[in-house]
Every structure is written in structure tokens, then in C-alpha cells.
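Progress report, Aim 2. The chain analyzed during this reporting quarter is listed below.
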Amino acid sequence: MKKVLRMVAMVMVMLTFSMTAFAAETGEVTGDVKVERSKSDVPQPRFPGTASIYSVKAYAYSTALGGYIKNAYTYVTRFTGQFGNMSLNAATAGYFHEYNCDKLYIEVEIDSGRADMYEVYAGGTLIGKGDFGPYYEGFTDVFSFLVPVNGNEANWKIVLYDREDAYHGVPLTGFISVD
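Predicted C-alpha cells for the chain:
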């Protein structure tokens, strides 16, 4: 029985990695919100006071082209706070205007501080929610999603909840200026 369970688990892991690799190669967004867990070298104390943003990466995204422009991105790291505000660099903003982009494809890496649940908002609209699953010491979570740009500005918010207090979440927010 143990051998069968191990084999099923191994097949599931292989399928997960193959789908993730496919999505990364094409540059297409396959859903509203994608969450991946990765190893971090920073200790992670208990939620909620320790939840923070590690980094934000933003690409220009064109709905007409159906994907994001991979040639340039803006990357800011080590916020270690609740606010991930940034401005696009000249290369990313140039592609945004050249291809008449209307959204940003962003990747937000966070320390969830062992939160149990999350909600993701883009432009003030709820676009996804879910559970983190089991907590593993030293891992961070990367959220990937589209954010609409209105008047050269885009905003997003990830609200983290503890299962025992699902009404008082900790918001991690970001504001991105296109120009």
C-alpha cells in the first residue's frame, strides 16, 4: 500500500512541475491567480505581525496579444513590510506603451507568516481566494496574477487570514506607477 501511495504522489509531483514549466515557457496566464511555494533562507515567525512582502516583479501585459512582454520587467526586492509600492523602469514602461498594454502581469513573493488563508484583489476586485495548506518552515509563497492599469496606475492587495480569526485579515498592498 505504501508503494502505491508513493507512486501516486510521485506522479502528482511530476504533473505539477510539468504544467508549471509549460506555463512559464509560454508566458500565458492560465488562471486568475497562481500560487507557488518556494524555499526561503529567512526565518518565519508566527502570523500576523510577521507577514510581509519580499519582492514584486511586474511585466507589461497586452490583452490583444494574449500574454506578457518577456523582454523587460521591473523587479524590486526586500520590502519586508506590508506595502509593495513601485514605479515601472523605463524599459518596462516603454514596452507597456509600445504594445498598447492594458494590464500588468505581476509576481508577488510574500512571507505569509503562517497565515492559513488568503484573498487576492486586483484593481479593487476580488480575483481569487484559497488556503495555503500545510506550513513548511523557511518557505515563501509567490502569487502571480494580472492587474488592470487605470490612468497609469495599478493596485493590488493580498489579505492574509488566520483560521481562528477569518474576519480580521492582514493586508499586503501594492501600488504600481506605469510612468
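Residues 140 and 154 are 24 Å apart (CA to CA). Residues 2-36 form one domain. These observations will guide the mutagenesis work planned for the next reporting period.
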